[in-house]
Amino acid sequence: MSNFRNLPKVDELLRDERFVPFQDGLAKIKTPKFVRAELECLRTEMSQGKHANATRADLSEIIIASVCRKLAELQADRLRKVVNATGIVMHTNLGRSVLCERAANKLTEVATGYSNLEYSTITGARRPRLSYVEQLLADITGAEAALVVNNNAAAVFLTLNTICNNRPVVVSRGEMVEIGDSFRIGEIIAASGCSVVEVGATNRTIANDYSKAITQETAAILKIHTSNYRIVGYSGETSTSELSAVTQQADIPLIEDMGSGILIDLAKLGFPYERTPMDAIADGADIVTFSGDKCLGGPQAGLIVGKKTYIDRLRRNQLMRCLRIDKLCLAALEATLEAYINNENTPTSALFGTDPERTHEKATVLHNMLTQAEIGTFEFAVQPHNAQFGGGAMPLENIPSYAVYATSSRFSASKIELALRSFSTPIIATIQDDNVILDVLTVNESDFLHIVLAFLSMVKD
Ligand SMILES: *Cc1c(COP(=O)(O)O)cnc(C)c1O
After folding, report:
1. Which CATH class is domain 101-345?
2. I need a labelling partner for 173 at 20 to 30 A (CA). Which of 22, 51, 63, 276 fits?
3. Residue 171 CB: number of other CB atoms within 10 A?
4. Which atom of ligand 1 is nearest to the CA of 292?
5. Distance of CA 335 to the CA centre of its chain
């Protein structure tokens, strides 16, 4: 005889105070569903002879513990702030660029009230939403015209779909790359309705390789920044100016996907010079695309600049309606570009140029806070560390930085790393040779307290 009558009632279970922290958002909806499913599961197990001696309290415990675990897993995926202690500035999984204050303020202003999104206060009639930001972009990059879409992948897709539909586009074999999260150039070309003609060798493509491949049918040449990938040793690519000579001869457009599209001069910050969209336009590219939330330091967006005849054709593509940006993105993008014009740093560009001495001081502050908290079993040390650009940009370049290295006689590095990222404000750290590494370049000093509290939480019991 089974003891089904020992099974607690749903209502009774739902009154347990351990569910109180979950009475919000998705977890609130899921709580009764999970409780019922768990009860059903126990009923099945009991009919198979399990839990024969369990009391009502035992069964309640099993259900509540299991439901709480599932609810906590759900809530972990709520979008929220984390502390980026990885030292990767444009960390794609952590939201890429942090907006500048000007952008955050403009975003709030536009989000919390009405705006002139598609309204001219001069004429009292409708105006296109992108009219101002397009002029900003065109003037900054020296292009005739500009356009903005949802992200750079969409920018490439829209360009190919408009300019090359059903026709072949010529690409260097060395640039048929994957940019992470399965954005593959070959596949995006196919999806946009074009065919690809690969030319040259994996490590080297010369202008003549492109010229030879061009036929009556050819729609364009596409040049792609290999971003997260480098060919070193015996290698060579054809420059935009050389390619421009080829496309002018053939009377077809030259499209350049720059990926990160940095606007500032990296050489001034002590890094190798990185080509800018201004260079691409000056070198004769007809359409140039880049991301809004990589080196530019703005919101997710795909920026397209180039010749007016082509940009106008892109604008008329019906897909434009599907790929258009919303008012929040527009507010943040406009403000980010205006910050650039005024020589104001974005949080992203500020990190590229941070003086390592300053980062050392910052690491020392965190180190002192951690040491003074007298958290037993941990050892902390300040060490030089290589921070990175991230977002697929400058993969071989390091940004000189400092980190606090943490080790413990009681916890393994992976235990510490897990505890840090499970903290109420998750701290995202990295592990190297059994050290947990907290690179301070990407951490605000105002967040140091969260780090200290996260360590304290590991030893509290
Ligand atoms: C990052 C990148 C993309 C994709 O840009 P998103 O803005 O993330 O869509 C496309 N091409 C290149 C070369 C890139 O580096």
Report:
1. alpha beta
2. 276
3. 25
4. 7
5. 19
Pocket test for ligand 1, best of 172, 176, 257 (most atoms within 8 A of CB): 257
Q: b or e along 432-455 (b: 16 or more beta carbons within 10 Å of the residue's beta carbon)? A: eeebbbbbbbbbeeebbebbeebb
pTM: 0.94
Q: How far is the CA of 16 from the centre of ligand 1 (A)?
A: 48
Q: Are 231 and 263 in contact (CB under 8 A)?
A: no
Q: Where are the domains of the chain?
A: 4-76, 83-94+351-460, 101-345
Q: What is the pLDDT of residues 133-179, one digit of tens each?
A: 999 999 999 999 999 999 999 999 999 999 998 999 999 999 998 98
Is the CB–ligand 1 distance for residue 151 below 6 Å? yes
340-391: pLDDT as tens digits: 999 999 999 999 999 999 999 999 999 999 999 988 899 999 999 999 999 8
Q: Which atom of ligand 1 is nearest to the CA of 392?
A: 15
Measured distance between the N- and C-terminal CA atoms of the chain, rounded to whole angstroms = 43
**103-120 average pLDDT score:** 98
CATH assignment, 83-94+351-460: 3.90.1150.180
Amino acid at position 67, single letter: V
For residues 31 and 22, give the distance between their C-alpha atoms in angstroms, rounded to a whole number. 8
Q: Which atom of ligand 1 is nearest to the CA of 260?
A: 15
CB atoms within 10 A of CB 173: 14
Ligand 1 neighbour 175 (Cβ under 6 A): no
Which residue has the least CA distance to atom 12 on ligand 1?
259
Q: Ligand 1: which residue has its CA nearest to atom 13?
A: 259
